[in-house]
Amino acid sequence: MNFISVRVITDDVARLADFYELITGGTTVRTGEVFAELSTPFATLAIGSTRTVAVFAPGAAEPARNRSAILEFLVADVDAEYARLRDAVDSWVNKPTDMPWGNRSLLLRDPDGNLVNLFTPVTPEAAAKFARFQA
After folding, report:
1. Does the pLDDT at position 14 exceed 90?
2. Is 33 helix (H, G, I), strand (E, B) or coil?
3. Domain residues for 5?
């Protein structure tokens, strides 16, 4: 089994797709107004409209209700990302902070309130852990 993607359900696919393009510098592939995907070499962030939930199971997912998951993106320099995004992001949770497990992390919320972590490994152990994901 391989973990492939995370899907976020929203009332506004275009708004979230635009936000994640800004955050990542990537491009989403959009399927009409109901679906978009942002693919990286290691995973995909899928963004689905609330209108797609009925295909799975009506009422199974609700937008802007997450308070337990964090979408995490490995970046080359978290401080540079903070400087780049400082004026573009509306909801900051914290500024770049060194974590006890060896990452420097920056927490923010996307337009639907989902928690997003941009992080850079800063200890040798953390750098080794994520070496296969870095170019």
Report:
1. yes
2. coil
3. 1-53
